[in-house]
Amino acid sequence: MDIVNILENGGIGVMPTDTIYGIVGSALNTQTVEKIYQLKKRSKNKPFIILISSLDDLKKFDIKLTKKQEVFLQKIWPNPVSVILHSLAFRMPKNKKLLDLLDKTGPLVAPSANIARQKPAATIDEAKKYFGGKVDFYLDKGKIKSQPSTLIELATDGSYHILRQGAFQKL
């Protein structure tokens, strides 16, 4: 199974991220993003976290960083910290295999693998109960027990506000 090919062609899958199992698809394909919203039964006013492999990926979303924002992000990434910039949330994961995948596929939306307001899947079997055959692949890495990412909002002056304390504690 070629996950890169599936994702590049608009496919969706469930796989481990750097924190928990996520339901992933190309962040640059509006139909894919729409399908994930439908599968999760999630409100459109709750943006998905977008996994990126470098600060350059932000340009694909027309995000221009101030110097202070760039310095801040270079200090905290890669890590399990999701950062809201211009009402979108981004994370650069620390996991090398995941970064390599992102290098090949481009940015991926990666919300937790669950239906809205349900418990995130800790195993592939739990994810299959949520999504069954409605996704193109499942990548099983056993049980994942981890906190979600820390979520912060980053201002243009480099100051930040913690919205959710998660796996990353060093802010």
Q: What topology does this entry show?
A:
Blueprint: H1 3-8, E1 13-16, E2 21-26, H2 30-40, E3 49-51, H3 67-76, E4 81-85, E5 88-91, H4 96-105, E6 108-109, H5 124-131, E7 137-138, E8 150-154, E9 160-164
Parallel strand pairs: 1-7, 3-5, 4-8
Antiparallel strand pairs: 1-2, 2-6, 3-6, 4-5, 8-9
Which CATH architecture would you pick? Answer: Alpha-Beta Complex
Any idea what the shape is? globular
What share of the residues lie within helices?
25-40%
**Oligomeric state, counting identical vs distinct chains:** single chain
Output the structural class.
alpha/beta
- The termini sit apart by 39 Å
What's the β-strand tally? 9
Low-confidence blocks of residues: none
Main beta sheet strand tally, sense and closure: 9 strands, mixed
Give the neighbour order of strands across the main sheet: 7-1-2-6-3-5-4-8-9
Query: Briefly, what CATH class?
Result: Alpha Beta
Order of helices and strands: HEEHEHEEHEHEEE
- Evaluate the radius of gyration: 15 Å
CATH superfamily: DHBP synthase
**Number of helical elements:** 5
Number of domains: 1
Mean pLDDT: 93
**Beta-strand proportion:** 15-25%
According to CATH, the fold-level topology is DHBP synthase
